[in-house]
């Protein structure tokens, strides 16, 4: 290399630019994966809150609509959800609708959404026990 010339290699430093670009792409991909994961977790938590609320309502369905729906509301609140609707049907099944807040990260929208989730629970028919052969139930 001549020390008296000021000529530089035009490719010098291009690896740094490629590395910075690759890091930006990897960061963007990581952020998308994290955001999708957050949305999936929120969805599962919302559906779990609906399922547990329906089970709580079904456990008190024979006591009437008000005690059953009060139990469902308590369970929904304990799980971070809000009871939107609760009905006890004639066959003692409970239908429960809850909403669960989800706030997308600020980089995406920063808006809180409240998707709704539905669950149904009810009594199970009594178990059928086999009888020894030759005996009638």
UniProtKB/TrEMBL annotation:
Signal peptide as annotated in the record: none
Record's keyword annotation contains DNA damage: no
InterPro entries: Rv3654c-like, Tad_N
UniProt entry tagged with the keyword Transmembrane helix: yes
Keywords tagged on the record: Membrane, Transmembrane, Transmembrane helix
Bilayer-spanning residue ranges: 15-38
Region span, Disordered: 114-137
Domain Putative Flp pilus-assembly TadG-like N-terminal: from-to ranges: 13-59
Protein name: Secretion/DNA translocation related TadE-like protein
Organism the protein comes from: Thermocatellispora tengchongensis
């Amino acid at each position: 290399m001549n020390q008296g010339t000021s000529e530089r290699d035009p490719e010098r430093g291009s690896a740094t630019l490629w590395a910075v670009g690759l890091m930006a792409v990897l960061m963007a991909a990581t952020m998308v994966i994290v955001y999708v994961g957050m949305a999936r977790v929120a969805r599962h938590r919302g559906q779990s809150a609906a399922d547990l609320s329906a089970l709580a309502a079904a456990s008190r369905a024979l006591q009437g609509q008000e005690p059953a729906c009060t139990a469902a509301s308590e369970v929904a609140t304990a799980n971070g959800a809000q009871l939107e609707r609760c009905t006890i049907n004639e066959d003692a099944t409970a239908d429960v609708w809850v909403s669960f807040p989800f706030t997308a990260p600020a980089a995406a929208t920063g808006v809180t959404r409240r998707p709704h989730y539905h669950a149904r629970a009810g009594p199970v028919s009594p178990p059928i026990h086999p009888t020894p052969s030759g005996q009638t139930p």
